[in-house]
Design brief:
Elements (H helix, E strand, L loop, with lengths): L4 H10 L5 H14 L3 H8 L5 H11 L14 H4 L4 H6 L7
InterPro entries: T2SS_E_N_sf (IPR037257)
Protein name: Type II secretion system protein GspE N-terminal domain-containing protein
Organism: Candidatus Woesebacteria bacterium GWB1_43_5
Amino acid sequence: MILPDEQIRKLILAQGLADEKTLEPVERLARDTKIPLAEALVKKGGVLTDEQVGGLTASALNLPFVILSKAAIPEDVAKIIPTRIARRKKQSPKR
């Protein structure tokens, strides 16, 4: 993960996304299974969504965060995506 577990932990607590009681078992799981805390929070613990972790990370790094699945691709950009790639990625370029 881009941010260390401790920094993710501090951000979660500071923003009130979870409390100590909720984080403890997920941190233990992350440690025991040797996976990043962010991954444990999303995949194993169901405490946060991928979007929440992405937002936290982007915020900490002063970067914008965009959920691409919800973003519209401008027509002029869609036209330059090769059809074979668009099909593979399940996008449909306008031709």
